[in-house]
């Protein structure tokens, strides 16, 4: 299984600390119960984001995975990420949204293969 986390934020690139990426990788490896090498996190900073008419710091996340996305697990993933986004990116919880996307194994590839090959 591979987990891909895309973070779109209006926080400046210079304010995205490497510690955020490291701790997010470690935390999600724990909640998904997989190796850190199976977690990919990328941050699109400096994005124009307007929530409720405000340009205050915000973040929109999309998490893609072939497994581990369900009603129970998503609560753990969400709690982990919300605390890290508020800690490192200084985004208030009411300005964070996460979309979880379960992906069929044939629809995700790594190392030149899909997960069903």
UniProtKB/TrEMBL annotation:
Protein name, UniProt field: L-dopachrome isomerase
Listed Gene3D superfamilies: Macrophage Migration Inhibitory Factor
Reaction(s) catalysed by this chain's protein: L-dopachrome = 5,6-dihydroxyindole-2-carboxylate; 3-phenylpyruvate = enol-phenylpyruvate
Keywords, in A-Z order: Cytokine, Isomerase, Secreted
Compartments (UniProt record): Secreted
Molecular functions (GO terms): cytokine activity; dopachrome isomerase activity; phenylpyruvate tautomerase activity
GO CC list: extracellular space
Enzyme's top EC category: isomerase
Predominant cellular place of this UniProt entry's protein: secreted
Record organism: Cinara cedri
């Amino acid at each position: 299984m591979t987990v891909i986390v895309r973070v779109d934020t209006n926080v400046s690139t210079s304010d995205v600390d490497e510690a955020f990426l490291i701790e997010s990788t470690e935390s999600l490896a724990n909640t998904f119960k997989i190796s850190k090498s199976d977690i990919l996190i990328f941050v699109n900073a400096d994005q124009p984001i307007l929530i409720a008419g405000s340009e205050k710091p915000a973040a929109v996340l999309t998490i893609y995975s072939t497994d581990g996305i369900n009603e129970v697990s998503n609560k753990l993933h969400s709690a982990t990420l919300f605390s890290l986004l508020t800690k490192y990116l200084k985004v208030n919880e009411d300005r964070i949204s996460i979309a979880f996307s379960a992906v069929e194994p044939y629809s995700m590839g790594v190392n030149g293969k899909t997960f069903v090959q």
